[in-house]
Amino acid sequence: xxxxxxxxxxxxxxxxxxxxxxETDDKGFIRTGSAVHAGYEDVDLTLETSVPGVFAxxxxxxxxxxxxxxAVGEGAAVVGQIHGVLRERQRLAGGLx
Length: 97
Known about the structure:
Blueprint: E1 7-8, E2 11-12, H1 68-92
Antiparallel strand pairs: 1-2
């Protein structure tokens, strides 16, 4: 995925999202979590977008706190969510018991 630059000269830029299937709010920020995810059993998907397996963190996420420390925390949290999705996909494919 290309690097996303969201803020330029004090204004939010969302042109890079054109053509993507992720849902956004009325301001253009990416919606995640219970508002959009298709869901897997017993997996925390608070940072997953409307596209299964695609996650959004930091300033681009709708409802996020627009601060570096918050984005760093979301970056740490998303790793576990990605691992959870990968485990669940493997389980559904019959690879885990």
